[in-house]
């Protein structure tokens, strides 16, 4: 949800507009003609959709909830949700790179059915797209509870199954299925966190982008497994296939990632009770947050039902934004193992140890990205658009510079550009 507000006082304007709309709803103005000016409403929600075509009744209902959350402020519940949903982001990125890391080893063991189609990355991308649609629309229709509680469990099960697949096609198919669960998390994690986030802490949306943590954990696991339990890297145009017993690294990687995802799924299930989107459940959820924070709030069931009517809510813009992110980030990750291996062959020994050591170092550098993004989007001198522009410019320069490397230290050091790439990815901000 990339914000392109009309001024640098976006958060202050949003808070003021939420307060006006909430007061208006409390005073009984529910006739569909809000007294809040079009400019006020536009400033607050034009960052997501066109405010003039937006339903004024839904706008008031959202303002009631937002005003109540702003009144409660930040509490232990939001911090807990931030970490749990952050781990969900880490799971998403971990599973995406998991199949890309395994791709060369799977090809070396089973071969590839056709030279025209690279089935594993293609299956992953199809799964991400279908998963985002399935889990996202189910959250809109029946509420977020089902998607929030089941997406990670489905990932954990099918990641473990993928490690047992006996062939290329079966592995690509199971990889597509667990990627579907990861695609759902891209939508659900941000939505469920944003619903409970006060306006004063919107920067946490940027800081919560834990993709780099998932990349790092998977990179370290790959460094441990793929460098020791993997066939030697292929040399020549038609390398010989290797035996299963000599190529267990990618299987161990999937088994371990599946276990970690299961732990995250259990933590999400036990520590957070996600409600549906019916009025009474929304009020109950806000009551629970206020009780934990020991602070009052202004939302009541009578107020919420007072502005209720049947409506259709489109999330096309949000889906489109996350779809683009879901395409760009895996595109980089899919080719990174091949790039590091080929560059290692030119600047070093090209061994499994060097390839996966470089991979782990690359992902470590990416940890800086969310921190930089969270600081810059709140800076008066940068804000969101300037952070995107500067980050994109730096990334472009470093990408062009990468093709000029000719030594091993340059090959290892230049992937530090990855954290600049993450500055661009993590900047989407409500």
From TrEMBL:
Positions of transmembrane segments: 117-137, 157-181, 202-229, 249-267, 319-339, 359-376
One GO CC term, this protein: membrane
Name of this protein: Sugar transporter, putative
Coiled coil regions in record: none
Cellular compartments annotated: Membrane
Entry keyword Nuclease: no
InterPro entries noted in UniProt: MFS_trans_sf (IPR036259)
Keywords assigned: Membrane, Sugar transport, Transmembrane, Transmembrane helix, Transport
Membrane topology of the entry: Multi-pass membrane protein
């Amino acid at each position: 949800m990339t914000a392109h507000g009309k001024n640098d006082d976006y958060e202050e304007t949003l808070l003021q507009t939420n307060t006006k709309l909430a007061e208006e709803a409390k005073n009984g103005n529910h006739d569909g003609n809000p007294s809040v000016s079009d400019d006020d409403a536009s400033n607050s929600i034009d960052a997501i959709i066109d405010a003039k075509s937006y339903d004024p009744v839904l706008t008031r209902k959202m303002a009631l909830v937002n005003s109540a959350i702003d009144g409660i402020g930040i509490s232990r519940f939001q911090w807990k949700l931030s970490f749990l949903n952050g781990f969900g982001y880490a799971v998403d990125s971990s599973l995406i790179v998991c199949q890309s890391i395994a791709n060369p080893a799977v090809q070396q063991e089973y071969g590839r059915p056709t030279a025209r189609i690279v089935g594993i990355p293609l299956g992953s991308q199809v799964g991400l797209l279908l998963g985002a649609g399935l889990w996202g629309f189910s959250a809109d229709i029946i509420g977020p509870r089902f998607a929030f509680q089941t997406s990670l469990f489905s990932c954990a099960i099918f990641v473990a199954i993928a490690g047992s697949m006996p062939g290329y096609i079966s592995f690509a198919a199971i990889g597509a299925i667990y990627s579907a669960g990861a695609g759902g998390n891209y939508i659900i994690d941000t939505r469920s966190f944003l619903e409970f986030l006060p306006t004063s802490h919107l920067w946490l949306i940027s800081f919560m982008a834990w993709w780099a943590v998932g990349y790092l954990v998977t990179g370290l696991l790959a460094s441990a497994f793929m460098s020791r339990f993997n066939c030697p890297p292929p040399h020549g145009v038609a390398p010989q296939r290797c035996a299963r017993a000599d190529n267990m690294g990618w299987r161990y990687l999937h088994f371990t990632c599946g276990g970690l995802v299961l732990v995250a799924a259990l933590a999400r299930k036990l520590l957070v009770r996600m409600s549906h989107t019916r009025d009474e459940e929304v009020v109950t959820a806000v009551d629970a947050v206020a009780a934990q924070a020991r602070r009052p709030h202004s939302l009541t069931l009578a107020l919420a039902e007072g502005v209720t009517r049947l409506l259709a809510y489109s999330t096309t813009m949000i889906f489109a934004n996350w779809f683009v992110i879901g395409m760009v980030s895996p595109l980089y990750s899919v080719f990174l193992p091949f790039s590091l291996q080929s560059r290692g062959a030119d600047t070093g020994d090209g061994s499994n140890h060097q390839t996966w050591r470089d991979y782990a170092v690359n992902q470590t550098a990416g940890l800086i990205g969310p921190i930089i993004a969270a600081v810059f989007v709140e800076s008066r001198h940068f804000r969101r658009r300037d952070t995107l522009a500067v980050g994109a410019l730096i990334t472009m320069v470093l990408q062009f510079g990468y093709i000029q490397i000719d030594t091993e230290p340059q090959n290892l050091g230049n992937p530090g550009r990855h954290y600049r790439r993450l500055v661009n990815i993590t900047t989407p901000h409500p």
